[in-house]
């Protein structure tokens, strides 16, 4: 059924499709397919349209029940979401997860800190409806309700919640919601509640090597921040690499800007461990038509990224689609401009195969570097190919 | 016989910039030929052009200033300190338009050209001053590729709690403007940030060769020779700014300077100027400048805030509020992070992650060859004594044309 | 000086009579929201209200009520809007107000008064509000639903490069309802990397309006700086082209030109010619800045 949908599907029809999936218990896994950023449905849509669409799918998860696989999408929104509607929908849907868990609390509190000064009234009445009154819900209200649902599992959040309740904390009109959350959190644990684990909510777990190594990747020509051109293989083959994806016009500071700044931190860690000359780093733009070398260079400079022969910012001069396929990128476009993407960092081995991926959640540079060093150790070294600068 | 004059205790020409606050200087003998004793009395004076800056001197950190100073300079090369300041009311019009000269008798034995570099009313800038400022600003933007991107990214919805709605509003913006101004001076050392005096008519500001003329839609038009025509922020070309008033007059409803200064003698009362005139100045327009998250996309924003800072500076001078140890100089009590006197301020402190924003654009606050304060990671406290009125080393290297030392 | 002292004394006395700034601001809200007062009094009072609006829920709601009340004079409603907007700069104190503020702006975005609609939509678009984007795009597609003229809608949509107004902008460039709409469409397209060829054509078209050529130069400079450098040079060498676009080209080269420019003797000669003769004085200065930068 989802094969037949396209980027021209009208929004009301999309909403009806989502509703029909929810109504059919056998199809609910398709909701996760609809949350993939690269789904054809999102092509050619504005970022705001995608917010409406994704929000509706997240709300559908609330009705359908949230599986472990679906949890990653909710936590992504809580971790780095800046749109109140999506954050509210994610917070609401989280309450349909099978059971509360302490690992979820930091995500909820983090989302509260991210969104509180940018909150808006939200409406869940129907698809695409925007609240024109503040009497309904909001992202902060939903997050506080989710904290109440977490109850004693959110004990780690008590000091912050008390600060939010105190004068100078959340506004007076939210004190009731804060109080309810706090009372629930401070309540006695349910003796029948079995402490569970949530596999995806702890430290970022590198996903198993995925993507498919496309032969087309061999023909990809990259241009770096200095305007030098090099083939994909010439740069990446021969040594492990840490590769992040970004674009300079990303307006979510928790995604691209932070990812590239953290790449700079990772470079320093590689240096400190004495492996900086044996593991390359690269940041590749999703937006090669706009992110010309000068723009790449300045973006990297402004975030403290070291740029040299083994550490570069790139755009794909040719073969951008091959890059997307090779890495299985979670990105989509309206025209040439990115309309939605996820956080993604991949570690390539010396044969340019993807050895590990960190997706959706903000990654810890120490874990990334540790993983990259493991890949380095596991590498059957191919003699290191010198990287020649200049046109190729 | 030759002597070397060091301004701001530096031999570098980059340090030869003065304000109304006294700058520490040194004179030493570099060629004692002709000297007959262990020291030579050197008379130090200023030589100004008719329209240029003027300077005054004193020998120590206190005392009256004079038009000249006699300093006994040892022939063995030991440096002798003295202080020089711009004479209030006589700022420079261009770089090096006033000379500091050293003489023994009538013989000139040393001289340097300096600039009394002062933040001025934008509406009264000369054509040359205006063009230098505009060129430097456009260069800093460099059609979106320059260092200005960091300044834009420092003032967004995400970062707004660091700088608004609490006591640190004025200190944060003072540091912000100083950082920007020092970057402008790295492009052109003769530039000082001008201010838009928003309680008075400023028709010269809203011209094609300066910050532009807005059409009825609010699209800002600039002359073909204005470098700001290539201004780009957030990947978008140009500026949207729609005045809700005739730009030949002042915006209506704003507190006048006198009214602003009369808000109260305690900082807690004075800082209510964040609403009016500051907020009203922003919202006297439609366009980028009227919303907190987009305001820094408009160059006018920096001139608006320069005036806000000037009002604070004037209030400080009027009420003697440079000393952070005095309760009246700042808002006592506990404030959100970044707004308390001992707090370092984001982004210069490099601290990221809740309760600070996720990234810290721009790095440390720019250094200056003319002043060591407020340092690369300023605290709220360090922004108060910008003239060095309490502690001479707190001087930050900027002054306003109508706020004396 | 005596006048200034008198004015200061008066201001201080006024303040003392009004109490602290906070007290004065609360009183101002009472005046601004009172239907018994004149429009002039109320708009003046609204200007003094931002402090009270962000510190008092009661004052905030009172001001919102005036804004939403379509029976109130438009000037008073606009003053209320400005007061609320000024208060919104105090982010920390305004936190509790924001939800109602955004909701109200969405209501006012469809107000009967065009100025109120325009201001509310502008404020929402600068927040990248999906509601406002949806309304503006709908209006471009279907003029019967337009809340604003197309040129204003395009200008506001340009606040968010992710707003997907590019198709609508391209359609307006092809078939403009008016020249201003075409100009705004082009300004918006300056963020579209695929629009570089369009801007090249416009820049080189001597029959094109000067403002459009200036926009094209700036757009090309950002999207394809090497092409802009080439065309800037050609324009400067072309004796038949206009002084204003030459001035823009010179300004571009002064900022963007590389170190090889001084070796271009023909270009330097053309610029030298431009710096003298019948060129307007302002543009001569532009030429002299260029020559000075490149050591001529």
Description:
The complex is a heterotrimer of chains A (392), B (405) and C (296). Chain A has 392 residues and is of the alpha+beta class. Chain A has helices at residues 11-23, 30-34, 47-64, 68-80, 84-94, 105-115, 139-150, 158-165, 175-186, 232-236, 253-272, 293-302, 320-327, 365-378; strands at residues 121-122, 137-138, 221-224, 229-231, 241-246, 280-285, 311-318, 331-334, 337-341, 344-348, 354-359. In chain A, strand 3 (221-224) and strand 4 (229-231) form a beta hairpin. The radius of gyration of chain A is 22 Å and the shape is globular. Chain B is 19% helix and 19% strand. Chain B has 7 helices and 15 strands. In chain B, a hairpin with a 2-residue loop joins strand 12 and strand 13 (236-237). The two termini of chain B are 35 Å apart. In chain C, 71% of the residues lie in helices and 0% in strands. Chain C is built from 19 helices and no strands. The interface between B and C is large, with 66 and 76 residues.
Please write out the topology.
The complex is a heterotrimer of chains A (392), B (405) and C (296).
Chain A: H1 11-23, H2 30-34, H3 47-64, H4 68-80, H5 84-94, H6 105-115, E1 121-122, E2 137-138, H7 139-150, H8 158-165, H9 175-186, E3 221-224, E4 229-231, H10 232-236, E5 241-246, H11 253-272, E6 280-285, H12 293-302, E7 311-318, H13 320-327, E8 331-334, E9 337-341, E10 344-348, E11 354-359, H14 365-378
Parallel strand pairs in A: 5-6, 6-7
Antiparallel strand pairs in A: 1-2, 3-4, 3-7, 5-10, 8-9, 10-11
Helix pairs in contact in A: 1-3, 3-5, 4-5, 4-6, 5-7, 6-7, 7-9, 8-9, 11-14
Chain B: E1 2-7, E2 17-18, E3 23-31, E4 39-48, E5 55-58, E6 68-74, E7 80-86, E8 98-104, E9 107-116, H1 127-141, H2 148-154, H3 169-187, E10 213-214, E11 220-221, E12 232-233, E13 236-237, E14 241-243, H4 257-261, H5 267-270, H6 275-282, E15 285-287, H7 300-319
Parallel strand pairs in B: 2-9
Antiparallel strand pairs in B: 1-3, 3-7, 4-6, 4-8, 5-7, 8-9, 10-11, 12-13, 14-15
Chain C: H1 2-18, H2 21-32, H3 39-47, H4 50-55, H5 57-68, H6 74-87, H7 91-94, H8 98-108, H9 114-126, H10 130-141, H11 150-157, H12 166-174, H13 179-189, H14 196-204, H15 210-223, H16 225-237, H17 243-256, H18 265-274, H19 281-293
Helix pairs in contact in C: 2-3, 3-6, 5-6, 8-9, 10-11, 11-13, 12-13, 13-15, 14-15, 15-16, 15-17, 16-17, 17-19, 18-19
């Amino acid at each position: 059924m989802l094969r037949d949908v396209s980027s021209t599907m009208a929004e009301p029809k999309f909403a009806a499709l989502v509703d029909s999936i929810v109504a059919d218990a056998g199809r609910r896994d398709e909701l996760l397919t609809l949350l993939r950023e690269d789904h054809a449905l999102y092509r050619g849509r504005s970022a705001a349209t995608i917010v409406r669409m994704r929000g509706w799918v997240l709300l559908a998860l609330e009705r359908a029940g949230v599986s472990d696989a679906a949890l990653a999408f909710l936590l992504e929104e809580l971790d780095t979401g800046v749109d109140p509607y999506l954050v509210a929908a994610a917070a609401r849907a989280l309450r349909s997860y099978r059971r509360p868990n302490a690992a979820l609390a930091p995500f909820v509190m983090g989302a509260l800190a991210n969104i509180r000064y940018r909150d808006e009234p939200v409406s869940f009445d129907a698809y695409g409806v925007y609240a024109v009154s503040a009497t309904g819900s909001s992202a902060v209200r939903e997050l506080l309700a989710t904290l109440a649902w977490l109850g004693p599992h959110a004990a780690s959040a008590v000091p912050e919640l008390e600060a939010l309740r105190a004068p100078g904390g959340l506004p007076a009109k939210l004190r009731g919601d804060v109080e309810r959350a706090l009372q629930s959190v401070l309540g006695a644990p349910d003796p029948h509640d079995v402490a569970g684990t949530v596999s995806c909510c702890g430290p970022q777990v590198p996903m198993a090597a995925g993507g498919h190594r496309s032969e087309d990747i061999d023909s990809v020509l990259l241009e770096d921040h200095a305007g030098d051109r090099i083939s994909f293989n010439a740069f990446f083959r021969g040594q492990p690499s840490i590769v992040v994806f970004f674009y300079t016009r990303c307006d979510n500071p928790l995604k691209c800007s932070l990812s590239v700044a953290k790449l700079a931190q990772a470079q320093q860690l590689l240096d400190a461990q004495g492996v900086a000359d044996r593991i390359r780093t690269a940041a590749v733009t999703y937006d090669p038509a706009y992110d010309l070398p000068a723009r790449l260079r300045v973006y990297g400079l402004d975030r403290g990224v070291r740029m040299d022969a083994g550490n570069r910012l790139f755009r794909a001069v040719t073969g951008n689609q091959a890059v997307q396929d090779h890495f299985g990128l979670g990105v989509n476009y309206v025209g040439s401009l990115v309309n939605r993407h996820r956080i993604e960092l991949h570690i390539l081995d010396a044969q340019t195969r993807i050895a590990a991926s960190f997706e959706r959640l903000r990654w810890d540079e120490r874990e990334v570097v540790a993983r990259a060093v493991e890949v380095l150790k596991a590498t059957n070294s191919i003699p290191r190919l010198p990287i020649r600068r200049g046109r190729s | 016989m030759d002597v070397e004059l060091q301004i701001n205790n530096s031999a570098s020409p980059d340090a030869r910039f003065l304000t109304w606050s006294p700058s520490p200087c040194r004179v030493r003998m570099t060629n004692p030929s002709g000297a007959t004793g262990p020291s030579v009395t050197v008379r130090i004076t200023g030589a100004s052009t008719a329209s240029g800056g003027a300077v005054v001197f004193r020998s120590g950190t206190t005392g009256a200033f004079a038009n000249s100073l006699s300093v006994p300079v040892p022939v063995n090369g030991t440096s002798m300190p003295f202080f020089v300041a711009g004479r209030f009311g006589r700022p420079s019009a261009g770089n090096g338009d006033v000379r500091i000269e050293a003489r023994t008798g009538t013989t000139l034995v040393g001289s340097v050209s300096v600039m009394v570099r002062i933040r001025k009313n934008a509406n009264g800038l000369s054509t040359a001053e205006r063009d230098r400022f505009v060129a430097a600003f456009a260069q800093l933007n460099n059609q979106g590729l320059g260092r200005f991107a960091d300044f834009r990214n420092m003032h967004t919805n995400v970062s707004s709690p660091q700088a608004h709605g609490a006591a640190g509003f004025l200190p944060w913006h003072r540091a912000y403007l100083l950082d920007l101004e020092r970057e402008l001076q790295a492009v052109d050392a003769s530039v000082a940030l001008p201010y838009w005096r928003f309680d008075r008519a400023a028709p010269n500001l809203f011209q094609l060769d300066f910050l532009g003329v807005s059409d009825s839609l609010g699209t800002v038009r600039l002359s073909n020779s204005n470098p700001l025509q290539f201004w780009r922020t957030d990947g978008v070309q140009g500026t949207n700014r729609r005045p809700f008033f005739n730009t030949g007059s002042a915006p209506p409803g704003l507190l006048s300077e006198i009214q602003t200064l009369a808000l109260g003698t305690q900082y807690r009362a004075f800082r209510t100027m964040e609403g009016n005139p500051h907020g009203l100045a922003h919202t006297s327009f439609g366009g980028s400048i009227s919303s907190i998250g987009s305001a820094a996309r408009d160059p006018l924003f920096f001139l608006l805030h320069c005036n806000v800072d000037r009002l604070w500076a004037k209030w400080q001078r009027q009420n003697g509020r440079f000393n952070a140890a005095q309760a009246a100089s700042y808002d006592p009590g506990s404030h959100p992070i970044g707004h308390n006197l001992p707090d370092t301020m984001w982004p210069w402190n490099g601290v990221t992650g809740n309760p600070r924003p996720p990234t810290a654009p721009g790095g440390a606050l720019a250094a200056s060859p003319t002043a060591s304060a407020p340092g690369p990671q300023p605290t709220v406290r360090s922004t108060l004594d910008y003239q060095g009125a309490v502690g001479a080393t707190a001087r930050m290297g900027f002054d306003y044309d109508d706020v004396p030392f | 000086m005596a006048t200034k002292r008198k004015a200061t004394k008066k201001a201080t006395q006024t303040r003392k009579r009004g109490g602290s700034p906070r007290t004065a601001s609360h009183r101002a809200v009472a005046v601004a929201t009172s239907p018994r007062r004149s429009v002039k009094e109320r708009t003046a009072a609204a200007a003094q209200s931002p402090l009270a609006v962000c510190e008092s829920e009661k004052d905030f709601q009172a001001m919102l009520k005036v804004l939403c009340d379509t029976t109130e004079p438009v000037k008073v409603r606009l003053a209320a809007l400005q007061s609320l907007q000024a208060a919104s700069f105090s982010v920390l104190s305004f936190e509790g107000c924001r939800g109602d503020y955004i909701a109200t702006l969405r209501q006012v975005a469809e107000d009967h008064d065009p100025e109120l609609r325009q201001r509310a939509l502008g404020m929402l678009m600068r927040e990248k509000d999906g509601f406002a984007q949806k309304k503006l795009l709908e209006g471009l597609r279907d003029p019967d639903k337009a809340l604003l003229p197309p040129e204003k809608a395009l200008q506001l949509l340009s606040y968010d490069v992710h707003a997907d107004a590019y198709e609508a902008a391209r359609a307006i460039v092809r078939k403009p309802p008016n020249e201003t709409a075409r100009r705004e469409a082009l300004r918006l397209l300056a963020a579209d990397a695929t629009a570089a060829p369009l801007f090249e054509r416009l820049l080189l078209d001597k029959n094109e309006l000067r403002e459009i050529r200036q926009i094209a130069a700036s757009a090309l400079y950002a999207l394809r700086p090497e092409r802009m450098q080439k065309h800037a040079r050609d324009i400067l060498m072309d004796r038949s082209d206009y002084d204003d676009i030459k001035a823009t080209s010179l300004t571009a080269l002064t900022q963007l030109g590389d170190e090889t420019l001084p070796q271009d003797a023909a270009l330097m000669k053309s610029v030298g010619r431009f710096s003298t003769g019948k060129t307007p004085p302002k543009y001569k200065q532009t030429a002299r800045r260029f020559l000075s930068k490149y050591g001529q």
